[in-house]
Amino acid sequence: MRKIKVVLDWFANTNHTGFLLAQKKGYFAQKGLEVEIFGEVHGVMDLHGADVVLGPEISMLEKIAEGVKITAIATLTQKCDSGIVSLKESGITSPKMLEGKRLTHWSPAWFHKAVGRVVEVDGGDYSKVKLVNKDVGDIEETLGNDGDAVWIYKNWEWFVMKHAHKDCNYFALADFDPVLDFCAPAVAAKTRLIKEEPEAIRAFVKASDQGFVDAASDPEEAAKILHGYTPHFALDLLVESQQYISGLYLNENGRWGTIRPERWDRFSAFMQEKGMTKKNISGENGGYTNAFHD
Fold first, then answer.
1. pTM of the prediction?
2. Which element (helix H / strand E) includes 223?
3. Burial class (CB in 10 A: 0-12, 13-18, 19+), 107
């Protein structure tokens, strides 16, 4: 059995259900893989010795620019499920309305380039946003206390707040600028592994595809399997979150993981424009590959 270590971009939630289904149903084992899945809250992507690592395209481009030898091999969803959540009482319904409000943020400079972009597109001034440095693990504890607004994946924190009976506003970054419909979360593998053991990566992608297709076709079953890995979360929360995100997993051909060039390359060009990378790290330049989805 080929051992593969996977480091998630956060703790396991409905973004990642397909991997857990592939593990539980034996799809990885059938492909000759023994897969270890590890996840915890962290705002800065780190391989932690992994063969496969998850994170937003932004982080991957940053790491590649720094010389880290990774290549994206999949994206979890076909639409960027990423935006800003706030308590309804805060009155934040668009990026411009972040002015004068407390926005929690992570350390990397790209955070401010991305959110600053949508604030400016909406006619606002990002310098007027009150920034609070914090990795948010508990959205319910943060909103209204440490911050007024948090950058989230809607599939998770939105439903956590809903099930806590908190009325919230949310807007997707991509609704204000298509550049921000980037690949997030995305999946990358060590470039060395792609070159030296392509069949192991192909097996991982194919088994994962089976898991995500299953999750898309039967969200309730998927939520129950996820609950076995995350029993500390209420099953009804997992079911509702899963029903939502299952509709985002697959492309028009009913397959999981394929990276649309316009999503990746458009954002890579933005990173270059903002001086965060020296070149457009596209597929041709080693940013991503769809070779394992054929």
1. 0.94
2. helix 219-229
3. exposed
